[in-house]
Design goal:
Layout: E1 13-19, H1 23-28, H2 32-41, E2 50-54, E3 60-68, H3 70-73, H4 79-84, E4 91-96, H5 100-113, E5 129-130, H6 138-156, H7 164-177, E6 181-186, H8 189-192, H9 196-202, E7 210-216, E8 222-227, E9 229-233, H10 242-245, H11 253-267, E10 273-283, E11 295-297, E12 303-305, H12 313-325, E13 331-336, H13 340-346, E14 351-355, H14 358-371, E15 375-378, E16 395-396, H15 405-414, E17 421-425, E18 429-430, E19 440-441, H16 446-456
Parallel strand pairs: 1-3, 1-4, 4-5, 8-10, 8-13, 9-10, 12-16, 13-17, 14-15
Antiparallel strand pairs: 2-3, 6-7, 7-10, 11-12, 14-17, 18-19
Helix pairs in contact: 5-6, 6-11, 9-12, 11-16, 14-16
């Protein structure tokens, strides 16, 4: 079911958000029996505390939720999502204590707290309902929440039920919902259509590789989103060890993220011409798998020496990025679960991104802080360019040495696009449950991009 706010009702239970600075005022406003109840429960406004205040009939008169200090809140985000999971069934409204961006975040956190992946176990218990605060744009927040839910759902689905076919079907469903156009090039047609590296990476799988191409909108600057759609990555002939292969259902996290972002853009009817490109493949092992030290020709005409078949994401993205450049977009953004090096650099909670445009970088960084979607700018460090030049071919897909792996991968991708370009090297996975983010697939960077688009594209 879509994530949605509760219908307004006069019976909604008020929630008062209390910090360490406001707890005394909040408690003094309670009737004497309420103050006694708060003292008995030890409520002091600490972050995570929830005080359900009963009325004289055994119902709930109001709820106080603790938001602690600014320092305690800074250690995470989406705190209201954790509160929502602690409340009894009912319909609530945030009556006081939050405003502006904090109120927007709380409303989004509540909706996202209602997401769970239950495809194989049956529906989970729903959380309590929240009436949208009057001060927030409820429709916008619901669209964003459901875009994020789409991303999570796609990543969480195991490869047995989320191969290139199913990823294409998800894109077609989204296109139908928003009356977008979609075209898909599949199997050997990739060869005749000049997408040689997408075909090469995916040809060893029993599930045909494909390029998904979706378009929406007929006015405004063109924005092209390119998402890595490796539905499962064995590593190819450079096969991954079992421990590294265990999460490879999420290797299409870039595709899932751009589809979630596309839902937000189309749902909000932004004045752009949107194009979404997803090379959808499975990196399998068979007699026709591509090999280490093969040299591949790309759509752009650049040759690529293969020094590790497990560095396949940049290969399929390269052909898609070349295509993205061919109709002169105002901005190209790629998202991919591309390198372990990015995770070593910034951990699983931050989305590293690359751009040569300082204005775009500042816009995304500012937006990320506003919408609680953490990002960190990384450099296209040109002195590392020789690391991706093997001599036998134009480019090396897996430079030796292990240094600066996220940067060299980004430099590799940049060789295939000349339009204004931004690349996100995301993780796409929540390793352990946190407020509004259960363990599993998660969107990274999409909300920051959405917030920054008006500035980046002069909308």
């Amino acid at each position: 079911m879509p994530l949605a706010f509760a219908e307004p009702t006069d019976a909604a239970i008020p929630i008062h958000v209390v910090t360490g600075d406001t707890v005394e005022t909040a408690l003094s406003a309670l009737p004497p029996e309420g103050q006694a109840w708060a003292n008995a429960q030890g409520f002091g406004g600490s972050l995570g505390q929830v005080l359900v205040v009963p009325d004289t009939k055994g119902g709930i008169s109001q709820v106080l939720v603790g938001y602690g200090s600014a320092a305690s809140r800074a250690r995470d985000r989406f705190h209201m999502g954790a509160m929502a999971r602690k409340l009894p069934d009912g319909t609530y409204e945030i009556a006081s204590g939050l405003s502006g961006d904090d109120l927007d975040e709380a409303a989004l956190a509540w909706l996202l707290a209602g997401y769970s992946y239950d495809r194989y176990v049956g529906p989970s218990d729903p959380i309590a309902g929240l009436v949208a605060p009057e001060e927030v744009d409820a429709a916008r927040i619901a669209i964003i929440a459901n875009g994020e839910a789409l991303t999570r759902e796609l990543i969480n689905t195991p490869a047995s039920d989320m191969g290139p076919d199913e990823l294409e079907e998800a894109a077609r469903t989204l296109a139908s919902e928003h009356e977008a156009q979609i075209n898909v090039i599949t199997g050997d047609d990739l060869i005749t259509s000049n997408f040689p590296m997408i075909h090469t990476v995916g040809r060893a799988s029993t599930r045909a590789p494909r390029l998904i191409d979706m378009r929406w909108g007929d006015a405004g600057p063109q924005l092209t989103l390119v998402g890595k759609g490796v539905c499962f990555d064995t590593g190819g002939l450079n096969i991954k060890p079992g421990g590294s292969m265990g999460l490879m259902k999420k290797d299409m996290g870039g595709a899932a993220t751009v589809l979630g972002l596309a839902h937000m853009i189309m749902g909000l009817d932004l004045p752009v011409r949107l194009r979404v490109l997803i090379p959808a493949v499975e990196n399998g092992i068979d007699g026709n798998a591509f090999r280490p030290q093969d040299v591949l020709m790309s759509r752009k005409g650049l040759t690529v020496e293969i020094n590790n078949t497990d560095a396949e994401g940049r290969l399929v993205l390269a052909d898609a990025l070349t295509l993205s450049d061919e109709d002169d977009p105002a901005l190209v953004i790629s998202m991919a679960t591309l390198t372990g090096a990015a995770r070593v650099a910034v951990g699983p909670d931050i989305a590293p991104f690359f751009t040569d445009n300082d204005t775009h970088a500042d816009a995304v960084a500012k937006a990320a802080r506003k919408v609680a979607d953490p990002v960190w700018r990384m450099p296209f460090h040109e002195p590392y360019e020789p690391m991706i030049e093997p001599g036998i071919a134009d480019l090396d897909n897996a430079p030796k040495g292990g240094f600066a792996g996220s940067i060299t991968a980004a430099l590799f991708l940049r060789r295939f696009v000349e339009s204004p370009y931004m690349h996100f090297d995301i993780y796409g996975w929540q390793p352990s449950s946190a407020p509004s983010r259960p363990r599993g697939g998660v969107g990274m960077g999409a909300r920051a991009v959405l917030e920054a688009l008006p500035q980046m594209l002069d909308l």
